[in-house]
Structure to design on (313 residues):
């Protein structure tokens, strides 16, 4: 591997499972994408970028890695889309049960079906904040309900789903979307109060699924289905910071980085976004303060002893 065994190359003392507050699960999967391929390479590119990132955050005046970030073995199950979703579900739920702040980096968006399912079983009255260019609400696509185009259909039925940045969808999704909880890009661009409206629609517990194609392709071109008219860096950070300040964000995933050898800036943006989200989550918490993650689950342990397919190269 071209990056260290620890996230961002942090010292071992901050990377141990037993003491780390934060879990990072890589999911290098690209089994259901239909246009730009390469999301399975996203976690590796992301982790490589973290090794070239300053770990002091100026805005929050913190070094959040000192809270402890444990990088798990990647989930490499690829027998079927359903098997991948189930592996993600079991692994995510295992770490929530261990009282960790669980984060994932994909991989394409179908992995979030399993992630959201685990968080929804662990936290009462969950809001799923879906930040994306695409609605991803289809009940099935290409003969499967475990498809990237169906990433939040289950969430729309079982959670308080709020969608932000949407600017592309199929006509069938118009019959499935909740317009009162959907904040289309063409509306938010002219609405100075859109962030307040989004937060007002949330419950206390929030899980964030962040598809990188929510961002404008001028700042992040390396994604499978780039769409014009996306979010920009500082408006995204302002929005996320307010969510973290006003709600109990219980975890998040970031997906759909499709690295391009000629564009390292997208990899670095994804790395920086991940670290900023952690910084917002823990900015008021001392490194030695115990993380309080309240859940109520009946869990059966899953296998996390998984590796990248090319680790033996």
């Amino acid at each position: 591997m071209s990056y260290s065994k620890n996230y961002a190359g942090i010292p071992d003392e901050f990377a141990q499972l037993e003491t780390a507050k934060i879990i990072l699960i890589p999911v290098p999967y690209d089994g259901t994408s239909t246009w730009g391929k390469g999301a399975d390479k996203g976690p590796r590119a992301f982790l490589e970028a973290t090794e070239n990132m300053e770990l002091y955050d100026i805005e929050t005046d913190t070094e959040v890695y000192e809270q402890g970030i444990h990088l798990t073995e990647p989930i490499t199950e690829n027998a079927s889309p359903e098997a991948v979703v189930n592996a993600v579900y079991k692994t995510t739920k295992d770490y929530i049960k261990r009282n960790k702040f669980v984060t994932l980096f994909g991989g394409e968006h179908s992995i979030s079906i399993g992630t959201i399912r685990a968080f929804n079983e662990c936290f009462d009255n969950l809001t799923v904040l879906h930040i994306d260019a695409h609605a991803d609400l289809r009940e099935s696509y290409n003969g499967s309900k475990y498809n990237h185009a169906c990433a939040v259909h289950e969430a729309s039925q079982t959670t308080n789903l709020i969608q932000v940045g949407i600017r592309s969808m199929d006509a069938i999704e118009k019959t499935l979307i909740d317009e009162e909880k959907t904040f289309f890009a063409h509306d938010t661009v002219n609405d100075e109060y859109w962030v307040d409206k989004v937060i007002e629609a949330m419950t206390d517990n929030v899980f964030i699924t962040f598809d990188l194609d929510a961002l404008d392709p001028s700042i992040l071109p390396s994604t499978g289905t780039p769409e014009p008219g996306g979010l920009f860096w500082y408006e995204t950070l302002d929005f996320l910071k307010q969510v973290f300040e006003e709600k109990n964000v219980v975890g998040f995933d970031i997906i759909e980085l499709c690295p391009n050898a000629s564009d390292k800036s997208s990899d670095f943006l994804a790395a920086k976004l991940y670290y900023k989200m952690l910084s917002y989550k823990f900015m008021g918490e001392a490194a030695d303060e115990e993380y309080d993650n309240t859940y109520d689950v009946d869990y059966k342990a899953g296998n996390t002893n998984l590796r990248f397919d090319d680790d033996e190269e």
Observations:
- The chain has one domain: 17-282.
- Strands lie at 22-27, 69-71, 101-106, 126-131, 160-166, 182-184, 205-211, 248-255.
- The domain at 17-282 is CATH 3.40.800.10 (Arginase; Chain A).
- DSSP finds eight helices and eight strands in the chain.
